[in-house]
Amino acid sequence: xxxxxxxxxxxxxxxxxxxxxxxxxxxxxxxxxxxxxxxxxxxxxxxxxxxxxxxxxxxxxxxxxxxxxxxxxxxxxxxxxxxxxxxxxxxxxxxxxxxxxxxxxxxxxxxxxxxxxxxxxxxxxxxxxxxxxxxxxxxxxxxxxxxxxxxxxxxxxxxxxxxxxxxxxxxxxxxxxxxxxxxxxxxxxxxxxx
Length: 194
Hints:
Helix content: over 70%
Number of strands: 0
Distance between the termini: 39 Å
Structural class: mainly alpha
Number of helices: 7
Order of helices and strands: HHHHHHH
Radius of gyration: 23 Å
């Protein structure tokens, strides 16, 4: 058996690409991070509003995408994929209008899908961690257990959770994204280009 040819990621200078630009703009990373953390906190406090706004945004994105896909179908109707383009475009438009017309029901449905994803993913991670037992398998077991418990807790309170879960997830994501940008900006000031 031959070893796969993999690139050497420890090449001298490879990790330094863009370092000077990062150092010069580190304050922008910190500023953006602070803004995202603040917006994430607002999203946590207004999770129902953020959930509804997210569903309406998704609906309108589907409508616009569907209109463009349908227009593309008619512009290139000589192509053999005309009907597929047309059907997908119309499906996008119809789905988008259903989401915009019923954002609460759409959020409840999406929340149920998220709960099922967390449950199935958690069970898979637990099973994998217990059957493979590679180094640090306990972290995968912990990750799977938390995912499973989170999925079950969302599912048990469904459909009421549909009002706030998506907004909560958006807020948490914004906070962690902002915090990582703040840390990157701070760390960039300490980096050297040696």
